[in-house]
Amino acid sequence: MIEVPEESHKLVRDFAGYLRLERGYSENTIEAYMTDIAKWIKFCSNQNLDPIPPRHEYMSRFLKAMASEGKSKASLQRYAAAIRSWNRYLTIEGWVDGEQWLPSLPSKEQKLPRILSEGEIERLISSCRDGSVLGGRDEALFELAYGCGLRASEVCSLALEDIDWRAGTLRVIGKGDKERVVPLLGSVKEKLRHYVDAIRPLLNRREERWLFLTRTGRKLHREDLWRIIRRRGKAAGIPSVRLHPHVLRHSLATHMLRRGLDLRTLQELLGHASISTTERYTHLDLELRDIYDKCHPRA
């Protein structure tokens, strides 16, 4: 974490509470905003600028500096959003007389997600079958992430109690803490069961409740998952430029659409934001399960 001047510590902590309680942001978003605001405050401190209030010209200089460091348009967009939220919070709390007008960036361009072919997915998973404990973990991780179309953060936040072996389902906490239930199909359930029974006990040195653990027995984080994907992708001969934390999720979505799954059902299965709030606790009925089973490439 970037160091923040001592006098700003409490204000930044309170801002995190505002994002969590008042705005209802996810922990991932809050963590990203905290990093962005810390970077903003540090920039102002180094430039002898007052970060409160975040003035238009200061923010423009900050964004230009970040762009010169090679930050992507998406990153600049997030910096701007974080600073505007920070400005709004300062106004509400009375630190600023009136909300400052701050520059905004054009909407970030939509890029088609990079995906792997079904053959490449098989190669990626096969690269894990090296007879090692971590290989067994990675195989189960890839099978589950692809088989259920999970986000990287969703994979890392899974706990043992999220698995319902009898029902053959998995409880997933998605963006905005929205909960959904997805089916564990035959091959995915089989690999996961083997991991939980035979592989995970060899890693679980701290009595952790989390499903996927590192070699030292701690909870697997997004950065760990990214390193695993890159390492296994290299072993499978897949160019690193085509790999990213959500590559398994995006690949599954594309493969299922090609096999005839309708978009609305896919949105429900993947827990996209367009699902209405009344569907936040999704239980897959037999008809939906039949559609899923018919269209899923690993059914």
From TrEMBL:
Transmembrane regions: none
Sequence ranges assigned to domain Core-binding (CB) in this UniProt record: 6-91
One MF term in the entry's GO annotations: DNA binding
Keywords: DNA integration, DNA recombination, DNA-binding
Gene3D superfamilies: 1.10.150.130, Intergrase catalytic core
GO process annotations (BP): DNA integration; DNA recombination
Highest taxon of source: Bacteria
Domain Tyr recombinase, first and last residues per copy: 111-293
Protein name: Tyrosine-type recombinase/integrase
Protein's organism: Acetomicrobium hydrogeniformans
